[in-house]
Amino acid sequence: MQKLSMPLNDAYDFVRQRKANISPNFNFMGQLMDFERQLNLGPCHCTCQASPCHCQTLHFISPTRTTPDSGIDVDHWT
């Protein structure tokens, strides 16, 4: 990404063309997104007014919501 000034999506496609079965984990993708922002390569989807954007939000993380198992009483099963 740094050497070729390549945004994350392009870098992902670049690697995937060479090895089709890649599956980077969630944490690693977050680190790559942070790196992309540090390099000022990716688009900013935030609403801040700073230019360049200095937000530290991971945009691919969905908002917190209740999951079906969030009401399970763990002590009940032990």
Automatic annotation (TrEMBL):
The source's domain of life comes to Eukaryota
- Domain called Dual specificity phosphatase catalytic: residue spans: 1-38
EC number of this enzyme: 3.1.3.48
Spell out the Pfam families in the cross-references. DSPc (PF00782)
**The protein's enzyme class:** hydrolase
Which Gene Ontology cellular-component terms appear in the entry?
cytosol
The biological process GO terms on file are:
negative regulation of MAPK cascade
**What's in the keyword line of the UniProt record?**
Hydrolase, Protein phosphatase
Q: Which InterPro entries match?
A: Dual-sp_phosphatase_cat-dom (IPR000340), Prot-tyrosine_phosphatase-like (IPR029021)
> What's a single GO MF annotation on this record?
MAP kinase tyrosine phosphatase activity
Q: Which family does the record claim for this protein?
A: Belongs to the protein-tyrosine phosphatase family. Non-receptor class dual specificity subfamily.
Protein name as catalogued: protein-tyrosine-phosphatase
